[in-house]
Design goal:
This is Reverse transcriptase domain-containing protein. The chain has 548 residues and is of the alpha+beta class. It folds into 3 domains: 198 residues, Alpha-Beta Plaits; 188 residues, no CATH class; 113 residues, no CATH class. Helix content is 54%, strand content 10%. The chain contains 26 helices and 15 strands. A 5-stranded mixed beta sheet has the order 8-9-1-10-13, sandwiched between helices. Helix 6 packs across helix 7. The radius of gyration is 32 Å and the shape is elongated.
């Protein structure tokens, strides 16, 4: 159906369970699996059912013609195998197939509605069945009534020649001990404490923490499989890589989180998700491991996982709150509001957090304006959180970073560069930090006050200490100074910090020092050689981490 998604079904089921549990009422659910439903539905019965429900004329003739005299063959080694006459089922991947198949489960819904089976949530809300493609959920207030629902499903399956897979079908009981057994086709259904429904982990304890933990595991798997491929794609732009990370990693982490009735996600899970997100952003910008996640987010114009979770929850609330009057979703929102359930409390807290008005009963135009206002509020709060986090955890570059035109660099200014070499990457870092130490940013990016030099126990191991003071590099430092004296006579002009960290600006002094372009290039070459030497140590590359 249009504008209906798996999240709507998950929200419906979660609200039913949460509401009845809050009122100390038991809920019995049976999750049934149909064996090869799309491939085994009889075409003759399907066409008869469609005509029975009002599909006629050209539409039924067109669908009938598509199903008539259909043959298929498997191609192996570029050679078609034996042709098979397809006499049942709907076409896999066909545009009409999902809509046509829905007429079969719809007969089950009509049958159960006539007998008024299910749980009563309000004067106008009675739900006993949830359907999404071939996924069936039976809902009842007791084991006896659930068994009656199963008998109805048995009769419906026999009528349409469908087979129920008892091995993959399970029963869950909420807020009551699961005593006794539920049978279907004479077989006892397995009783489970957890079940994955449309990708959402339902727990017997009515906690959504298991779903968030599952999202974290799935995010790790997706990141491990995808980032290696992304890193090898040298020719695509940064903006394209950004979109790929959002589609392949962020979407995995955020699936169905907006329908969760309780905000069970912990700081530990958020931190782990942000760690994986940071890994993907490092691949996009080719940045060092010690780079702060907050700078990545600002550089690429992306939101943190924390902000994305809040945004999805508020967008979903706006959608269901403005659903058609009298619809199931609209009634479920009212139930959440009246019963003060966990999902409503979570949304109310988010509205207060971002200073937003309630999004219920808005027109189409007002809803669009509210969404824009919500997006900007979350965006601004996320940026302020990033800056605050940087101030708390970093020492040197935060002030300069914050002064970088009030952090207003846009993505277009990065995508033009699309670095394919070291120099291009350094230009990216120059834009990112507004910091003149770009040549050494691979190991000084956002170091902390407590970073101690491991060689000489100097209190602060910053770039000034490494270049000018650390005895570990005395020989290299002397060699660099001797090389520079071949071009410059005055010791006053030999500032290693200028030469090594700011050689691009050092070129501006060539007129004053009467240097040629070749001499400037040779100075840069010596400086780069010095950089190469002092950055060989793996320990130095980890300088951005806290060392106490």
């Amino acid at each position: 159906m249009a504008h209906k998604s798996t999240t709507d079904q998950i929200f419906t089921l979660d609200t039913i369970i949460d509401c009845r549990t809050a009122n100390n009422k038991p809920t019995w659910c049976a999750f049934l699996d149909l064996r090869k439903a799309f491939d085994s539905v009889p075409r003759r019965l399907l066409l008869q059912t469609m005509m029975k429900r009002g599909v006629e004329g050209k539409t039924i003739n067109m669908i009938s013609a598509m199903m008539k005299d259909e043959w298929s063959s498997i191609i192996m080694n570029d050679q078609p195998q034996k042709w098979i006459h397809i006499q049942k089922g709907v076409r896999q991947g066909g545009c009409v197939s999902p809509l046509a198949f829905n007429f079969i489960p719809n007969e089950l819904a009509i049958r159960l509605k006539q007998k008024n089976y299910g749980v009563q949530l309000g004067p106008d809300v009675n739900i006993g069945l949830l359907l999404y493609a071939d996924d069936i959920v039976l809902i009842s207030e007791s084991k006896v009534n659930l068994q009656k629902l199963c008998h109805e499903v048995e009769e419906w399956a026999r009528e349409f020649k469908l087979t129920i897979n008892e091995d993959k079908s399970e029963v869950m009981c909420f807020n009551e001990a699961c005593k006794g057994s539920v049978r279907i086709n004479g077989n006892i259904l397995k009783v489970s404490n957890n079940f994955r429904y449309l990708g959402f982990i339902l727990g017997k304890r009515v906690k959504d923490i298991k779903h968030f933990e599952n999202r974290l595991r799935s995010m790790r798997v997706a990141s491990g499989a995808f980032l290696g491929i992304l890193n090898a794609m040298k020719s695509i732009t940064i903006s394209t890589k950004r979109q790929m990370v959002q589609a392949c990693i962020n979407s995995v982490a955020l699936y169905a989180t907006e329908a969760a009735s309780r905000e069970e996600i912990t700081e530990r899970i958020i931190a782990e998700m942000e760690k994986i997100q940071r890994r993907g952003l490092r691949v996009i910008l080719n940045s060092p491991q010690a780079t702060a996640n907050e700078t990545h987010l600002i550089d690429l114009g992306m939101m943190s996982v924390r902000a994305l979770l809040d945004k999805r929850a508020l967008l979903f609330r706006a959608k269901v709150s403005n659903a058609k009057e009298g619809s199931i979703l609209k009634n479920l929102v009212k139930i959440n509001y009246e019963e003060k359930l966990g999902w409503e409390k979570r949304c109310r807290d988010l509205l207060d957090k971002y200073g937003l008005d309630d999004c219920m009963l808005l027109g189409e135009e007002n809803l669009k304006r509210w969404r824009r206002k919500m997006h900007m509020a979350i965006w601004k709060a996320d940026r302020e959180w990033c800056i605050q986090r940087m101030r708390e955890e970093t020492w040197k570059t935060t002030t300069l970073f914050c002064d970088m035109n009030a952090v207003t660099w846009k993505m277009a200014e990065y995508t033009k560069l699309n670095p394919k070499d070291v120099n291009g990457a350094r230009e990216i870092f120059r834009l990112r930090a507004g910091f003149n130490c770009t040549n050494l940013c691979q190991f000084i990016r956002h170091q902390t006050k407590n970073a101690i030099c491991e060689h000489c126990d100097w209190q602060i191991q910053d770039e000034k200490h490494l270049i000018e003071d650390c005895p570990r590099f005395n020989n290299e430092r002397t060699k660099l100074l001797m090389n520079l004296k071949t071009y410059i006579d005055s010791d006053e002009d030999l500032n290693l910090m200028d030469v090594v960290l700011d050689s691009w600006r050092y070129e501006e002094k060539k007129n004053k020092l009467e240097l040629t372009r070749n001499q400037v290039d040779e100075i840069d070459a010596h400086a780069k050689e010095f950089i190469k030497i002092i950055t060989k140590s793996k320990k130095l590359r980890r300088l951005g981490r806290d060392k106490t």
